[in-house]
Predict the structure.
Amino acid sequence: MLNCKIILNPTSGQGAGGSLKTRILSLLNLKEDDIAITQSLQHASELAKDFAIKGVNPVVACGGDGILNAVVNGVLEISRSVKIGFIPAGMSNVCANCVGIPQDFEKAIFVLKKGFSKKIDAGLFEDRNRKIYFISMADFGITAQIVRKAEKDHNIKRIFGKGAHVFLGAFEFLKKKKNFRVFVEDKFFNVPLAIFSNGKYWGGALFWDKSIKIDDGEGNLFIFEKLNFFKALKIFSELIRHKNPKVKQFKTKEFSIEGKKIPFQLDGEFYGFTDRARIQIIPSCFPIITQE
């Protein structure tokens, strides 16, 4: 591939990402310096920004959803026209499912070689100090706290893999819930959890609704009120069975949240806490290499 750079996370997929470098070089006919190795999201974002400044196109992320998110944010600081590619090598790869990129390594490489791209929407989180783009999902409240604990405790994540979030979630949903305020359209809710989805998948292979699209100019906001352990169990079992859960849902371009230290995650990565933020959809934000 001409003028292509790969940003590779060697620790992705519980360490499997590091073994992909040689195969990528061979299958894409690249040189050694066409692959940049990173072990942090900040570094990945800086590399992507630098590549975009130098006119690299496409910029390709290889790893999990977090690395793809970092690459997207780095590129979008400079341009909305640079194509972004993705070789899924994480544990969940939700973004790949949402945009139509195969999970299989060689099939994903084939998609890159063909080079077909389409513009997709992106979410944008903004508070007083930050402006962060995301691709598939943004969680506020309990599930973001679960992601925080899973990322913090590397032993649990290494032992349980994808099941780390389920293991920690069981305990989190038994605790007393901390509510925050959600404002959407002309309505107001006091909730322990809100999930904003830009794609039909969430948290791995969990499935919202086949009608949800990543290029329709809107996102889907799910509001979870009076959430207890048994209600949460019922909702997530419905998602596993690809049934749209019976919770309040809004098709919307934007909403806002307010509260004290609201935990939030974007594309599976914990980004910290916020007291007030606006979340919106940016239509046709950037081109991504995907299947036709």
The mean pLDDT is 87. The domain at 135-283 is CATH 2.60.200.40 (Tumour Suppressor Smad4). The radius of gyration is 18 Å. The chain has two domains: 5-115, 135-283.
